[in-house]
Specification:
By secondary structure, this protein is an alpha+beta fold. It has a domain at 4-15 and 50-118: 2-Layer Sandwich (VC0802-like), CATH 3.30.2130.10. It contains four helices and five strands, in the order H-E-E-H-E-H-E-E-H. It has helices at residues 4-7, 33-36, 70-78, 101-118; strands at 10-22, 27-32, 52-57, 83-87, 92-97.
Length: 120
Amino acid sequence: MGTSKEAEQISPSAEHYVSLICDQHEVAVILPEKVWKHCDVSAVCRDSFGPLVCLTFDVPLDIEVAGYLQPVVNCLANAGLSIVPQCALIYDHIQVNEKDSDAAITALTELRQSALSDAP
């Protein structure tokens, strides 16, 4: 996960999010819940879920960095937590169900502590 300063920069969002997925072959949109409540798309939605909490990895990454998110995804999967990853060019985010946010933060904190103890 990088330095301890970088690992400490995983922060939950203050607001809730809703994920929209339009298939065949996909358009995915993650909106603040307050925006979703003002949209009139309920007639075309097959399903919705949330509220989601967005955990942001607030570490600017070079485009050449590969695989850094894999330990995070594995950690959360091993904790039995469902996630919606949202990767962008510079920053990455993981949405978790609001009810799972404390467990996700605990699991990621333990991952950070393990990574730090293994660091040279």
